[in-house]
Specification:
disordered C terminus; globular; about 15% strand; alpha/beta; about 35% helix; 14 strands
């Protein structure tokens, strides 16, 4: 009887566990369906751009109103900002913006480390913004700033006017698939074949492009994918589903790039500023750490020389107290007008964005809050359309959250010296701005005998999300 009773209890416990698992799986499916609806259906109207004001996008200046041939740069030069000027070229801006790598919420990918989550909807937007700034640095490093995707102008805008009908169909398909336990398959048109005299060069550039996108795939094998970033976050107490601030993401990105195994990524490293201070000697050391060949076994160019490597400089800053300080507007404009700026991991309270430019007093950004289906990037012909955004968004500077991370790309030591000189001038405090957003110091971090070594507090600014309340340095993500 005792044995039978024990077996009966064990069977009941096993049954309860199975029922609990089934409930959790069903709950997960419905949550996935809800997130897919929430972040696919709620689309904004088209973004309006002025034809009378210059538009800056990661160091390039566009003007949508054609001007006289005698003074083609008049409108942009009035701003006294660096950057290449392109006048009367709306399609040029669209092509440039759409060519940037867009990384958004995804659903139905393999479960994240230490969890059953198969989507990052509702919590992963800062990680996605971090992936986008890193992707831009890699595109700049490997393909150069002038590269644009040949299919950029073929994508349809993601706005309410052009997307409502397809969103409705997606809503029905998602709910049906969640109930049936099936994955929604989204069919997109194949890219037309390229041709012409420069076909070989275009093919090689497209191979680079596709390789970079694959590094950010949503699977355990992707070296810079969300699975890898979540895994690195776990070493400091973060779990899948937790909130991440822009400073924390900067340190996660540094670790991910340091540990990346791909030969093309060995020619670049990430430096994260400590306490809003860039230590020049440490950046120069990062430049000098590259010793391997500048080409990988497949012959792909890494962009580095045997005695130098490029450095991504990430600077976590706070531009105000509880709210953004309006005196920093000119500073942010100056930063985004620089050709070596790779953007800003920022956003507004409760939402993270990737800021890439501005027009007048509004920031231009890429929005990760859009749920898309999993794409298997391990295949050689995976579709690229969902990794590029044809619809730029604008936001008033006054709504920006003060916590952000600014990014720069430094090709070599000589390039860094130029960055140092130009940024030092921009950072000179004016009569209104009493304190610069960040500073440069000549020397090593350790030379200043800070109270805590880098390795002992590898990721500063981190907070325990399980404690009541939030810190001013973290986003409260939707």
């Amino acid at each position: 009887m005792c044995c039978d009773g024990f077996c009966s209890v064990a069977n009941k416990m096993e049954t309860n566990v199975k029922e609990t698992d089934e409930v959790e799986k069903l709950k997960s499916k419905f949550m996935s369906a809800w997130h897919n609806v929430k972040y696919s259906w709620a689309l904004k109207s088209k973004t309006a751009f002025s034809r009378n004001s210059p538009v800056f996008l990661l160091g390039k200046c566009y003007h949508f109103k054609a001007v006289d041939d005698e003074s083609p740069t008049e409108s942009c030069s009035a701003e006294a900002l660096d950057g290449d000027v392109v006048t009367g070229n709306v399609d040029g801006f669209r092509r440039d913006f759409t060519s940037r790598v867009w990384l958004t919420y995804r659903e139905e990918f393999p479960a994240l480390p230490g969890s059953t989550l198969t989507s990052d909807c509702g919590w992963g937007c800062t990680l996605r913004a971090g992936q986008m700034i890193l992707a831009q640095a890699l595109m700049l490093h490997i393909l150069g700033r002038d590269w644009t995707w040949s299919e950029a102008l073929t994508l349809e805008p993601l706005d309410a006017e052009t997307w409502t009908s397809s969103a409705a169909r997606r809503l029905v398909a998602t709910l049906e698939a969640s109930i049936q336990g099936e994955r929604v398959q989204v069919t997109l048109p194949l890219c037309p074949a390229q041709g012409g005299a420069e076909e070989a060069d275009s093919y090689l550039q497209e191979a680079y492009h596709r390789t970079i996108v694959s590094w950010f795939g949503d699977g355990p094998s992707a070296q810079l994918g969300i699975h890898r970033l979540v895994q690195l976050g776990m070493t400091s107490g973060k779990q899948a589903g937790d909130w991440y601030g822009p400073a924390v993401v900067a340190h996660i990105l540094r670790k991910a790039v340091d540990e990346a195994a791909d030969a093309m990524q060995k020619g670049i490293s990430v430096y994260v500023a400590q306490d809003c201070t860039v230590y020049s000697a440490d950046v120069i050391d990062s430049h000098s750490a590259w010793t391997s060949s500048h080409c990988d076994p497949q012959g792909l160019n890494t962009g580095a020389t045997p005695d130098s490597r490029a450095v991504i400089i990430l600077i976590p800053v706070r531009l105000g107290g509880e709210k953004i300080n309006p005196e920093y507007l000119s500073f942010v404009k100056s930063i985004l007008s620089l050709e070596y700026c790779i953007g800003i991991i920022g956003g507004k309270p409760k939402q993270a964005y990737y800021f890439v430019g501005f027009q007048d007093d509004s920031l231009i950004y890429m929005d990760p809050h859009y749920c898309q289906s999993f794409v298997d990037v391990s295949t050689s012909d995976f579709l690229l359309q969902s990794f590029h955004c044809p619809s730029p968004k604008k936001m008033p500077f006054s709504k920006m959250d003060p916590s952000c991370t600014i990014g720069f790309y430094s090709k070599n030591v000589e390039h860094y010296e130029r960055i140092f000189n130009e940024l030092s001038k921009i950072l000179e405090p004016s009569s209104k701005e009493k304190y610069p957003a960040f500073t440069f110091m000549k020397g090593h971090w350790k030379d200043y005998e800070l109270s805590m070594a880098v390795e002992k507090r590898e990721w500063p600014f981190i907070r325990d999300s399980r404690k009541a309340g939030t810190t001013s340095g973290d986003f409260v993500l939707l």
